[in-house]
Write a structure and sequence with these properties.
277 residues, alpha+beta, Pseudouridine synthase, two-stranded antiparallel ribbon, elongated, disordered N terminus, tRNA pseudouridine(55) synthase activity, TruB_C
């Protein structure tokens, strides 16, 4: 796929259909990242469209029509979380659900001794308790209870909706919320890769619908103390890894995105799935 000059416009307007991944920074929502990418791509789209139209007007041909860009993401990361965020463009938006089922990895840092109302570092401390008794062996043994097909109650601060409104929005407004019932989730593996009290770092390989902040809180309670999520990085989503595939913010350009979409298309052999109707 050519991604420069007039060819870049044609790629964006007609043929840029597929998936790519970016590195979501902290301090911005997943929707905010999508909006930023949309502005970047739309600006380039219009620029290349104008170049295309000018070229063909001189040759007596009709310029290409404007085509609105479709773009979306494949799984929300909290604003204070970072890491892999998969983006679908064009017909690729239809692939987000089917291509990203069930395979996610996270690097999570928990903090022992305190609980917060949001279960993460952004919330207000609601409870304190001693954690001097917690050892690496205790963490490791406690983690085994959460491996496999388990039941998990979703946190109140989540993107799940009640009456069409996100539970997190209701919680922020102080409205009473009944917890959602426990639901089945899958955890492939859990490992504590670092322990520097009061902080512990987990490598988590899980399926969809799993809430890391809930794991951290439940784990703290199981170990006879409190805990909240201090940091969260998604290191893999579907076939996209943070190390190999996610575009850093300085590469959020039409050229790099074209290359990333093409690379994934070739690797995953998605050509038949993303052909225009």
């Amino acid at each position: 796929m050519m991604c420069s000059g007039v060819s870049a416009m044609k790629s964006l307007a007609s043929n840029l259909n597929g998936l790519f991944a970016v590195v979501k920074p902290t301090g911005i929502t997943s929707a905010g990242v999508v909006n930023q990418l949309k502005r970047i791509l739309t600006k380039e789209h219009k620029k290349q469209l104008q170049e295309y139209s000018n070229h063909h007007t001189r040759s007596g041909k009709v310029g290409a029509p404007y085509k609105k860009l479709r773009i979306g993401h494949g799984g929300t990361l909290d604003s204070n979380a970072s890491g892999v965020l998969v983006i679908g463009v064009g017909l690729g938006t239809k692939l987000l659900a089917s291509q990203l089922k069930g395979n996610k990895r996270y690097r999570a840092v928990g903090c022992l001794g305190t609980s917060t109302d949001t279960q993460d570092v952004l919330g207000k401390i609601t409870q304190r308790s001693p954690a001097d008794h917690v050892t690496l062996n205790l963490i490791t043994s406690s983690l085994q209870r959460y491996v496999g097909n388990i039941m998990q109650i979703p946190p109140l601060y989540s993107a799940l909706k009640v009456g069409g409104v996100r539970m997190s929005d209701l919680a922020v407004r102080g409205e009473p919320i009944a917890p959602k019932p426990a639901r089945p989730v899958t955890v492939h593996s859990l490992e504590c890769v670092q322990f520097s009290p009061p902080y512990f770092t987990l490598d988590i390989h899980c399926g969809g619908g799993f809430y890391v902040r809930q794991l951290i809180q439940d784990l703290g309670q199981d170990m006879g103390t409190n805990a909240h999520l201090a940091e969260l990085t998604r290191t893999q989503q579907g076939p996209f890894t943070l190390a190999k595939h996610a575009l850093a913010e300085d590469k959020w350009t039409l050229e790099h995105i074209c290359e990333a979409v093409q690379e994934f298309t070739e690797i995953a052999e998605l050509e038949n799935l993303i052909k225009p109707p």
